[in-house]
Write a structure and sequence with these properties.
The chain is mainly beta. It has a single domain, classed as Immunoglobulin-like (Sandwich). About 10% of the residues lie in helices and about 30% in strands. The strands form four sheets. A four-stranded antiparallel beta sheet has the order 1-4-11-8, with no helix packed on it.
Length: about 200
């Protein structure tokens, strides 16, 4: 008896399965029209994207770390005078922030002053950035540790952020420092975007 009930249940399930997977249909005979409905879903994950430098144009992970260099080799007499470097490379950095779940904040962090491999240092207060778009501010680079976060302006008053700007970095050159290539240690700023 149990075997017969199990066989009947399996047969009923096998016959019903195609009906569960079928789209809606309607058969009309004679005059009239037939209708069938179809439901749609779009599933969008929560996303947060930050690109500083290379990779800002592509919406994907890129592991390239760019370098901004202020080189005074061509005009050593300008060291400590506030004058610009003879050669500057990478000072204009493209930045993009995309988020879809509310206010995005952006902060910078460092592990201490720039050094030349010895005890000589240049403080991060000597490095500043201006932005081409007020809605995507460049956060202040802290002397060490995590800095204060800046808000990236939401797009059109929604929960969406999609901002692109150029940050232009400059070196104040306000003091004479010992020779060397500063940034061989502690020369990296890490930018962090956060979203609820």
């Amino acid at each position: 008896m149990k075997k017969a009930l199990l066989l009947k249940s399996a047969l009923a399930l096998a016959l019903a399965t195609p009906l569960l997977a079928s789209a809606e249909s309607q058969l009309v005979t004679g005059a009239g029209s037939a209708t069938a409905r179809l439901d749609f879903r779009v599933v969008v994950p929560r996303i947060l994207f930050l690109a500083v430098g290379t990779g800002s144009g592509a919406f994907a992970t890129n592991t390239t770390i760019d370098t901004v260099t202020f080189d005074y080799t061509g005009n050593p007499a300008a060291v400590g005078t506030g004058a610009a470097a003879a050669a500057v490379t990478g000072a204009v950095v493209p930045v993009r922030v995309v988020g879809n779940n509310g206010q995005v904040t952006l902060a910078a962090s460092t592990t201490g002053a720039l050094t030349n491999g010895t005890a000589d240092t240049i403080p991060w207060t000597e490095i500043t950035a201006t932005t081409s778009l007020a809605a995507l501010p460049s956060p202040t680079i802290p002397a060490t540790g995590a800095g204060t976060a800046s808000n990236v302006t939401l797009s059109s008053g929604t929960r969406i952020t999609d901002r692109t700007a150029n940050w232009t970095f400059s070196y104040a050159n306000s003091a004479v420092v010992a020779p060397g290539t500063y940034g061989t240690t502690n020369g990296r700023v890490t930018y962090t975007a956060a979203m609820p």
